[in-house]
Amino acid sequence: MTLTFLGTCSGTEPMPGRRHVSFTIERNGTVYWFDAGEGCSYTAHLLGIDLLAVRAIFITHCHMDHVGGLPNLLWNMRKLNGISRDKPLSGKTVQVYLPNLVTWMGIQQLLAGTEGGFSLDYKLAASDFRDGLIFSDDGFEVTALHNNHLGPPPRPNQWQSYSFRIEADDKSVVFSGDVEDIRELESLLDDCDLLLMETGHHQVEDICSYLRSSAKTVRRLGFLHHGRDILDDPEGELKKARALFGDSVFLADDGMTMEM
Known about the structure:
Layout: E1 2-7, E2 22-27, E3 30-34, H1 40-46, E4 54-58, H2 64-67, H3 70-83, E5 93-97, H4 101-112, E6 123-127, E7 132-137, E8 140-146, E9 162-168, E10 171-175, E11 194-198, H5 204-213, E12 221-224, H6 228-232, H7 234-245, E13 249-251, E14 257-259
Helix pairs in contact: 5-7
């Protein structure tokens, strides 16, 4: 699996060199997309990621810094498929997972106003989800767990914010999304190869101290969705984190790629 960070910033005003949060996982010629901050498809395309190999898109919650680039991603996929001689998306289905389908309705209305009414010769299949396994394809699995970032659900069991555990090839990645408390992730962290933890709402030393004292096995810790402290002093914050968690902690940057 190859992870590429397309955006690593929290929901701040525009920051030099950083866009809002998004990353992809490439595996066996297929691309899986996690959150879609603004400009994510622009960044991915220029980095050489094949937008026409996208199999599924997973959105943790529908705040703008996590979903603002989704319409443009879908538009770019259509554009690239239309100008491709082989039209690799034609006749296929791209899965889109969002906690809130009201947002999806708005995205559809927006795209319908573009040229050609956004007609497609492939299918976009959008669905909401609940806790548990939400996707399984060719040994690539995504499990969702709700969190309290957006508070109690408006209706029973319809939480609006989630974290994900991704498993493939005997490796596991946990993506926090935005959480109220890292303890909400506990059931996802058993035997975890990589935790991608947001810092837009947390201090790095608090996260590292919790992980060091917990009984969970987290082999590598990456911070993303960077808050003000990291944006203001990344070197100082990384030093704090490594003093507690060692050299297996890193701060993600836009365009960074890593192999699992």
